[in-house]
Write a structure and sequence with these properties.
- The chain has one domain: MetI-like fold, CATH 1.10.3720.10.
- The protein has 18 helices and no strands.
- Helix 6 packs across helix 11, helix 9 packs parallel to helix 15 and helix 12 packs across helix 14.
């Protein structure tokens, strides 16, 4: 038995050697820090440390559940997440289907390059671009409103109702091209014989999309949708924090920004245990969601994560 194991793994020892670094990275940065999760159940103090701080039980969780911020941050996070999924998830799919219909390879490559470029722009720059475009006085938006109506444009960054739209649609613009790569790759694996058979049957290009392309993309769409729904409580912190101000705080305060303010932000009292409890609650909900969504997908189709 030992010889069999040595023969099996010794044959590809170079590949297992490559696994040492990612395995060590996962252990050091993903598993060892899990011991610190216990501060969510403690009244943490810097002097006492993680192990020396007194236990508080579920007091930090009850504090969050009873806080008026509970419904606000949960509601804002869910509202923007569902908005992002409904508005943004179909875009890469539609774009990939459109790219697949282009026969001019040079034009196709140029179009792909242009749509991929926003992905490499940092979040700070994207928010800066938004602020310049939608500036009520000097931006394109402000100049257009002034020239058309003669009145000064309202400040969109100061309107709570405008925050979800700015957040979601700027994210769609930045990511839809890059997100389409995996769908384009899936479409390249479709056998050309299927298209030829569809042409023989008299199918139009739209019918080919419906009956050839979409069925080929269905497994990929299912897996990515499961992953996206499983992370529905985890919106990006950076852009929300940069776009946030005292005027739009009612709709821009998300779980990620609230955790940062409670645990790390300067200028006020910090409560590491309270912030850890909120973060642990958020992770538990994400885990529950991905399990439920995967189980549902497994029942409705043959495609699932496990």
């Amino acid at each position: 038995m030992i010889q069999g194991v040595q023969k099996k793994y010794g044959r590809y020892w170079q590949l297992y050697l490559f696994l040492i670094l990612p395995a060590a990275y996962s252990v050091i940065f993903a598993y060892i820090p899990m011991f610190g999760v216990q501060i969510a159940f403690k009244k943490y103090s810097i002097l006492g440390g993680i192990w020396g701080s007194p236990w508080a039980g579920l007091a930090n969780f009850r504090k969050f559940f009873n806080s008026y911020m509970f419904t606000r941050v949960i509601g804002n996070t869910l509202r923007i997440s569902f908005y992002d999924i409904l508005a943004g998830f179909p875009f890469p799919i539609i774009f990939a289907l459109c790219l697949n219909t282009i026969e001019n390879r040079r034009y196709k490559k140029v179009l792909q390059t242009i749509t991929y470029m926003p992905h490499f722009i940092s979040v700070v720059v994207v928010v800066g671009i938004l602020m310049q475009i939608f500036h009520p006085l000097n931006g394109i938006y402000g100049v257009l409103v002034k020239s058309l109506s003669g009145a000064t444009a309202p400040d969109l960054f100061g309107k709570p109702g405008a925050f979800p739209h700015l957040y979601v649609w700027s994210g769609i613009w930045q990511s839809f091209g890059w997100s389409s790569i995996i769908y384009v790759a899936s479409l390249t694996s479709v056998a050309e014989e299927l298209y030829e058979a569809a042409r023989v049957d008299g199918a139009s290009r739209f019918k080919m999309v419906l009956h050839v392309d979409l069925p080929a993309l269905a497994p990929t769409i299912t897996i990515l949708l499961i992953l996206r729904l499983g992370a529905i409580m985890s919106l990006g912190f950076e852009k929300a924090w940069l776009m946030q101000n005292s005027l739009n705080l009612r709709t821009s305060e998300l779980i990620s920004t609230y955790v940062y303010k409670q645990g790390l932000a300067a200028g006020g009292p910090t409560d590491f245990s309270y912030a850890a409890a909120i973060g642990l609650f958020n992770s538990a909900i994400n885990l529950l969601l991905i399990v439920l969504v995967n189980k549902t997908a497994n029942k409705l189709s043959e495609t699932s994560l496990w």
